[in-house]
């Protein structure tokens, strides 16, 4: 164990090695004070105004939907039929819907579901994609079959397939886990299983290039097992493409979930998500167009902020761009 | 090049088989008997016919084989019959929709023109807008035009069609009252006035679809132009004293178009998928809307057929993109 620990700094000294694992220990050049990689990344990230704004906005939205319900304590399912279809006021800042439910509370509840689905589905897709990418890149024997599989998945018509999955597996999962839990699992799995392919391709490409580097050879020559090689040397170095895919993955997952809800095949009607709220509001489009705008704006802003975040992250994590 | 094309064509067969197997298994693994959901109003003999057309009650591999036969042998015959007036398919059992009790393919054929009109127009419009934007953004990188283009395409990425669609309905139909919010598919273009009506009802769905496609294409065009603008041959061309227009529009553009053309080809099937939502928003009576109604009505044969058609489109255009790449870029002749 100690041997391996001492080996890690060497890896950073390999010529042309730009990405050093986070815990890589001291890597001094004699004149400059020590700088970690993440410090460099942060410095580059700060220069990207859009990314900074995007990150800030995303954090605000996430905090808003998770902490907001503690501050705004109206129950999103509380029906007050006398106060229905109200415009914005002090008691209901975003107005009420056709059953007198508070729109702000519903937006928060819906956002919590949408963001949770987005993040969980992204984690699932990322896990699957990274695993397949690393295995395909690392083991030559598995490369061909796994990449064929990826190509086949890319050739599947995703949205129709998602709709079909919703149609077919909704009932049994509802029966097994209850209506909300069941549909959550179904949507997360469906999105995760159909969106891991881009990550797998990118990770595989990077692993293929990394595998030929000297530090991998050095690690192998002292008898590092394949598992250790992957977890200690390969994975930390492919972290940056994985992080970029992660941000973009959240964006796609949120849009996919909202699309499903909008088409009426997502969460049940009494269980608000942003897509569902938008879908419900289209019925009252003529009378109360503003009710469509709030959930739509929330989806668009979240996705926009995540996209900008990913854009900035890609620049910050690319050592060729960094420092320009 | 020919051998490459043929090889790819042969490779497409297992891909299609795999996809059809996936779709088949998905419906197969689904809990419950697909016939259990057939309404009781369907007469017994129709049920029996449907069972036979689906090959139900036989082992799984036999059913899969029959399904394949249905798609690759009988339905193409029907297509040929309807195009040339021959009668190859007479007496064959067809896949029958559970909603309308008519053959699925006939309904699909009825719906295709609407989808093609709206989606096709949107695609052409998007290409016409995206290419100049991409070219100019790359040529003046980091200028205000480029920054604005980046922002607009980011917005185009981020605003989902079910929001932008509803938004334009609110603005242009509800508030301004310029365009109808519902696309009338029974409308026939016979003279100038009816043409104007057709144009008016097409503007909004086309606008929504085109925004999305433009966002992606212009980004791609810009990246591709940037890759080429720093190449040595560009410097050579400038050093020879060629005009800036010739350098950018002839030398750089032609090389930059190679990946863009393949992306355009690859995007065509995806547009059919994306159009599901747009069609739903504007009530366009196309394929996407057909799929949604079929799913809502539990019409499994229809769902199977449509999903498979989408898959065929994807595989077909993947093939076209690959071949195009080989034709356009002599460096990438695969054989």
Structural notes for this entry:
The complex is a heterodimer of chains A (324) and B (335). The model of chain A is unreliable at 1-25 (pLDDT under 50). Chain A is globular. Chain A has one domain: MetI-like fold (Orthogonal Bundle), CATH 1.10.3720.10. The relative contact order of chain A is 0.15. Chain A has helices at residues 2-13, 37-47, 49-71, 103-138, 140-154, 158-177, 179-194, 197-211, 214-221, 226-237, 239-262, 274-282, 290-317. Chain A has 13 helices and no strands. With 324 residues, chain A is mainly α. Helix content of chain A is 71%, strand content 0%. Chain B is mostly helical and 335 residues long. Chain B has two domains: 2-84, no CATH class; 112-296, MetI-like fold (Orthogonal Bundle), CATH 1.10.3720. The radius of gyration of chain B is 24 Å and the shape is globular.
Which fold name is given in CATH as the topology of the largest domain in chain B?
MetI-like fold
Q: What's the gyration radius of chain A in Å? A: 23 Å
Number of helices of chain A: 13
**Largest interface: chains, residues each:** A-B, 46 and 43 residues
CATH architecture field of the largest domain in chain B: Orthogonal Bundle
CATH 4th-level superfamily of chain A: MetI-like
CATH class annotation of chain A: Mainly Alpha
Count of extended strands of chain B: 0
Strand content of chain B: under 5%
- Residue-averaged pLDDT of chain A: 79
Global mean pLDDT of chain B: 80
Number of strands of chain A: 0
Please outline the major beta sheet of chain B: none
Q: What series of H and E elements makes up the topology of chain B?
A: HHHHHHHHHHH
Unreliable parts of chain B: none
Q: Which ranges of chain A are low-confidence, i.e. pLDDT below 50, for 5 or more consecutive residues?
A: 1-25
